[in-house]
Structures are given as structure tokens and as C-alpha cells.
Amino acid sequence: YFIGFSMLDIVGGYLGKEMAEMRAFRKQHRWLAWGNGLGFYLLLLIPVLGVLVAPASGIVALSIGMKDIK
């Protein structure tokens, strides 16, 4: 959850969201942070490839997810 939460904050900053707006978004879409954090941890279970792929795929997945929710 905390990895997804921090990635959600990073993507919100890239999209130019205000802090109060991101706080409300996180409260409404808590499942998005949970799902992204879970996917990140599952990708990290792959020995070498997970470390290379997990951060990029997490950011891309959240970017797509946030744009789809709008």
C-alpha cells in the first residue's frame, strides 16, 4: 500500500495536481494504491528482472489508471 501511495503522489505531481486535490483523490481511490502496490511487490519477486521492470511498470500503470478515472 505504501509503495502504491507514494507512486500515486509522484504521478499526481507530474500531472500538476494540488496537494488537497491529491488527498481527496487518494481517499476516494484507495484501491488504486493497494492494487499498484501489490503489483509492484509481485513483480519484485522475479529475481533480477523485477528490480528493473517494477518501478517503470508501476508508474505507467498508475498514469493510465489516473487518466482512466477522470
What key attributes describe this structure?
70 residues, mainly alpha, 4 helices, elongated
Structural commentary:
There is one protein chain. By secondary structure, the chain is mostly helical. Helix content is 84%, strand content 0%. It is built from 4 helices and no strands. It has helices at 2-14, 19-28, 30-44, 49-69. Helix 1 (2-14) crosses helix 4, helix 2 (19-28) packs across helix 3 (30-44) and helix 3 packs antiparallel against helix 4. The two termini are 22 Å apart. The model has no long low-confidence stretch (mean pLDDT 86).
Q: What is the structure about, briefly put?
A:
84% of the residues lie in helices and 0% in strands. It is mainly alpha-helical. The mean pLDDT is 86.
Topology readout:
Blueprint: H1 2-14, H2 19-28, H3 30-44, H4 49-69
Helix pairs in contact: 1-3, 1-4, 2-3, 3-4
Radius of gyration: 12 Å
Question: N-to-C SSE series?
Answer: HHHH
Question: Which structural class do you get from the secondary structure elements?
Answer: mainly alpha
Distance between the termini: 22 Å
**Largest sheet features:** none
Low-confidence stretches: none
Shape designation: elongated
Q: Strand tally, please?
A: 0
Q: What is the number of helices?
A: 4
Can you give the helix content as a percent range?
Answer: over 70%
Give the strand content: under 5%
Mean of residue pLDDT values: 86
